[in-house]
Amino acid sequence: MVAPGAGSPVPPAERLAERLEERPTARRSVAAEVLHELARIDLAVYEAIASTPTPTLDEPLRRLSGLANHSKLWIGTAAALLAFGGRTGRRAAVTGLGAVALNSVMVNLPMKFASGRARPDRDAAGVPAERHVPMPTSTSFPSGHSASGFAFAGAVAGSMPALAVPLRGLAAAVAYSRVHTGVHYPGDVVAGAFVGATIGEATALAARALRRPSTPPSSA
């Protein structure tokens, strides 16, 4: 077990809890304790996944995690939609890639910089070497892979609803693979999925609004 103390990264929830504890109101004390407990759950789930033998899943999830680097998985999917999806597929592909680009600007720059959360110590947690992918140098919170996947899925689903379930399922698998390979805490991927889904839905709404023909003013 990795103790949340010396030598281990301090999760954002723990840092926020410490700040709340500096303000001695009953409500803030409860909020601080809730955040401490969430941080402990986050670490406990990470360690439980790390210590659970899954030899059949390790290689597929490691490959899936690597395939999603630099949004290659979503770019490849968009290319297939462009080639074989007709007019609707082309529209979905452009909207999906737009959501991925917007997500990258929002998540990989300001949000990661603001959080400052260190990556997990997967060696101390006992993540098997067979699962390892290169440890990113960026901060851990939120997960950019999770955010990109859900952003792409939500944006494409706005034009092609039939793809909503398979694409979101694939995005969820990518998100889990980041915890399985030891490069993210569960809280990182949950937050990334939420942010990405929001960006995807917003991009789909904006795309529909841009396609909607404007109504000419009626003559009096």
Your description of this structure?
This protein is mainly α and 220 residues long. It has a single domain, classed as Vanadium-containing Chloroperoxidase, domain 1, CATH 1.20.144.10. The protein contains nine helices and no strands.
Mean pLDDT: 88
What is the tally of beta strands? 0
N-to-C SSE string, H for helix and E for strand: HHHHHHHHH
Number of domains: 1
Under the CATH scheme, the architecture is Up-down Bundle
- What is the CA–CA distance across the termini? 75 Å
Characterize the largest beta sheet: strand count, sense, and whether it forms a barrel. Answer: none
Strand content: under 5%
**What is the SS-derived class?**
mainly alpha
Question: What global shape is seen?
Answer: globular
**Spans of 5+ residues with little confidence (pLDDT < 50)?**
1-7
Q: From the alpha-carbon coordinates, what is the Rg to the nearest angstrom?
A: 20 Å
Number of helices: 9
Task: List the main descriptive attributes of the protein structure presented here.
220 residues; 70% helix; disordered N terminus; Vanadium-containing Chloroperoxidase, domain 1; 9 helices; mainly alpha
Secondary structure elements and their pairing?
Blueprint: H1 12-21, H2 26-51, H3 55-67, H4 72-84, H5 86-115, H6 122-125, H7 144-159, H8 164-180, H9 186-211
Question: What is this structure, in a nutshell?
Answer:
70% of the residues lie in helices and 0% in strands. It has 220 residues and is mainly α.
